[in-house]
Specification:
heterodimer, A: alpha/beta, Beta Polymerase, domain 2, two-stranded parallel sheet, 3 helices, about 30% strand, B: mainly alpha, Cytochrome-c3 Hydrogenase, chain B
Amino acid sequence: MRLKVSDLKSQNLKSIMELLNQVNEKLNANFAGQVVSAEMLYDFPVFTIKTEAMHDVLKFLKEDAELNFHFLTDLTGMQTADEKQLGVIYHLHNMPKNLRIRLKTFMDINKPELPTATDLWPAANWMERETYDFFGVRFKGHPNLKRILNVDEMDIFPMRKEYPLEDQERTDKDNSMFGR
Amino acid sequence: MEMSKETNDTVNKEVFEEKEYSTLNLGPTHPATHGIFQNVLKMDGEIIHEATPTIGYIHRAFEKLAERRPYAQITPITDRLNYCSSPINNMGWYMTVEKLLKAEIPKRAQYHRVIIMELSRIADHIICNSVIGVDTGAMTGFLYIFQWREKIYEIFEEICGARLTTNIGRIGGFDSEWKKSTWDKINAFIAEFPKALTEFSNLLERNKIFMDRTINCGPISAEMALSYSFTGPNLRAAGIDYDVRVMNPYSSYEDFTFTVPVGTSGDTYDRFMVRQHEMWQSLEIIKQAIKKMPEGPMHADLPDFFLPPKEQVYNNMEALIYHFKIVMGETDIPKGEVYHCVEGGNGELGFYLISDGGRTPFRLHFRRPCFIYYQAYPEMIKGIMLSDAILTMSSMNVIAGELDA
């Protein structure tokens, strides 16, 4: 079986906008009040979901026959600029229709907990471990939530902004000269 | 006759019940693993019962490093992800920044990028496929075809001065037109490589020993490959025709005609064959790019990112200011967040970039295909022989740099 490139065309922005509205309608119908925001960031429809509903939303998007976001492209973490919240970001992909979507959820940094997605995608296993390793997000129900890239003895979550890369005590360099 | 069979069964049953597993520590620095991978194997004789991979031996904190580096200085970091095909990583990163800047890249620069990316894809697949040969005991193919990887590196050297960690090009395009000697080398490569690749194919593709060794070795079904988020040749070998170049064309891939080879069973032989055919397709794309090469500038009009020519820097104040700004990394970036993916040597290489308008990214995440699909490895080698597990790993093309970031 071979596929010719010329048979396929990438979606234009209009159809992505339609997707944004379609997903938005469906989510609002099924999860009233759980969708914090829906927006278009560059070429990506982005939804922010409340943490409590995140797992159900993922399950719904995966299993809904029409939306069919069956492929977990990426899962990663981030910290908000005010350093008070941690976020988890999911990139989902519907391969047959070639539609992509980004989901975000934000949690209080003192209680970063949300249910695991490993029951939906085995691929989430290491990605969640990586997110835990670097940000300290605890995925409830994860089969093996321990550090993956850093040493087990590490007692900080290094990607948090409170741990700067360079030694801040350094005096031999005037940072104001470098716009830092 | 009947008696002895019965006795045998009782003996076997006893052996089975008293089964003891032995633990084998494969790696981290084992010559057969082609990189720093550790697997603690629970073995039943020569059959693998369970595998526990440990990764992170060459973790270099790229995502944290990137948060303190100006955009142009992140390119050398991307070199060190999948170091077998660095230029693809470089281009993927440039395209991510260009997407954030909403920059229009001239067609000529895009076509040049396509040539570079396809050359490095060939180099990547040469390494993987010839090493599959070595792991099955066929050293000859490896020795024959590896010099062609060398010739590709010579082309990179002509363009940017580096061979392995290339840092090739700029945000916005290329620093200058390629020299005539570069084109001579590329044309010579296109003219002569098919002969070498045919020779390599003849050695292995229909070789009885090689086929017996690789068919049904470490297979993965399409459903399982999708649930483990496989991408690239490994997914296509399982029968899913997903290729980022086709699904989300970037850098003018929509201008070229090529086919996406797919396998059926997702075993080592299919992965090998998919890569073989991709090399032929890459050659076709390079030929088309050279034939259709448009005229025009080699870089976008992005003075904030593109070092001005030296004669202007010394004679023109504006050029000097830009030169200084770029070198000090003081260029303005719009706020925003983008995800851009390219078809890397191993699959969908994604860059998720959040910019808060500062000189460095607020957050940069690399979607590293190796990291994501290597977690299926314990599942894939369960119940197969140790030597097949080695072969499975080399055919999955797990690159330590990309795995550990």
